[in-house]
Design a protein that fits this description.
It is a single chain. With about 325 residues, the chain is an alpha/beta fold. It has helices at about 10-15, 30-40, 55-60, 85-100, 115-120, 130-135, 165, 170-190, 215-225, 245, 260-270, 305-325, and strands at about 30, 50, 65-70, 110, 140-145, 150-155, 195-200, 230-235, 250-255, 275-280, 285. Strands 4-11-10-5-6-9-7-8 form an eight-stranded mixed β-sheet, sandwiched between helices. A three-stranded parallel β-sheet has the order 1-3-2.
Length: about 325
């Protein structure tokens, strides 16, 4: 569901309305009454159908958007988040995780949450990714932002920029690169992934003149990974890693902090980039945008990133099955 006062409901409606014969079957964990009212209020001609179990979505999907109801009530005002809905938001995440871990569903796609609303009720995680790492992983996870033209993986994610250098370590780079390398094989059908690693300082430190981190932290990680057989290069100057010609030479870029990787990919592929959480026991994707409270219930929100997230989740599930049986 995500934040019910944001655009999550609207883009789910549009994603179902835009379906074709190739669209994976999906259902929404939400309030059926809320979604039906939203469809009417936004003038979107969408039929909805409440289902009692996930398997019912197969019978319903061609004629209506299947909705598996939550136990908690959801009363949302577009554009105005309310902490009273926090328990329903968390319930939707928890139930999705349970269904995925039990194998009832192939993957989950999470709509954006309004973090401040959850923080006000004691939610202690920076976001979906960290919460999922605890519930469906081993406490660690890797965030990949993927599009048709670029994949980036930040070593540090949602922390203040001034804190990022102290959080970057050789071990953390090793974990991110190994996890990314395996995910490209399992989920993206790339048998021999090519990775590049960005430096943290201008010109990757210019041989120590602009900082020692590239030499002391990043380069040792790259050498270890090369010795393990990974096809990996770096540290590279981040200002020249993302133009058209260079992007053809690698399958994913390991970046040192959030904006170093997300500014390039959002510039190149804002409409169709997808947030993928790696290192979990389940498959999870998400639109690479926020709750867009200013667009809530206007009928103007784009569902492109959500549709890309649904399609990628299904492709990842299929690739994993094929990889496991090959």
């Amino acid at each position: 569901m995500g934040e019910p006062s944001g655009i999550g409901g609207e883009i789910c409606i549009k994603a179902w309305m835009n379906k074709n014969t190739e669209t994976p079957i999906f259902f929404l964990l939400d309030s059926p009454e809320r979604i039906q009212k939203l469809a009417v209020d936004t003038g979107l001609a969408c039929r909805t159908r409440e289902i009692s179990k996930p398997e019912d979505a197969k019978e319903v999907f061609s004629i209506a958007l299947p909705i598996l109801p939550l136990s908690r009530q959801v009363v949302a005002t577009p554009g105005k988040p309310c902490s009273g809905n926090a328990s329903a938001v968390i319930e939707s995440i928890d139930r999705a995780i349970e269904l995925a871990k039990s194998g009832v569903i192939d993957a989950i796609v999470t709509n954006p949450i309004q973090k401040e609303t959850l923080f006000a009720t004691g939610f202690s995680h920076p976001g979906h990714t960290e919460y999922l790492a605890e519930k469906a992983g081993e406490g660690q996870s890797v965030m990949m932002i993927a599009s048709q033209t670029l994949r980036v993986v930040p070593v540090t994610t949602h922390i203040p920029l001034l804190q990022a250098p102290s959080e970057i370590s050789t071990d953390r780079i090793l974990y991110c690169a190994r996890t990314t390398n395996q995910a490209l094989k399992d989920y993206f059908k790339i048998p021999s992934p090519r990775l590049v690693v960005a430096g943290i300082n201008p010109h990757a430190g210019e041989n120590g003149y602009f900082g020692s981190e590239d030499i002391e932290i990043i380069k040792p990680a790259v050498e270890i990974l090369k010795n393990e057989g990974l096809d990996i290069n770096g540290p590279l100057s981040a200002d020249s890693m993302f133009h058209d010609k260079v992007r053809t030479t690698y399958d994913a870029a390991i970046c040192m902090y959030h904006d170093q990787g997300l500014i390039p990919i959002k510039t190149i592929a804002f409409e169709d980039s997808v947030n993928v959480t790696l290192g979990l026991s389940i498959i999870r994707t998400s639109p690479d945008h926020g709750t867009a409270l200013d667009l809530a219930a206007t009928g103007n929100a784009s569902s492109s990133s959500l549709e890309a997230s649904i399609n990628l989740a299904a492709q990842m599930a299929l690739s994993l099955r094929q990889h496991q049986t090959s």
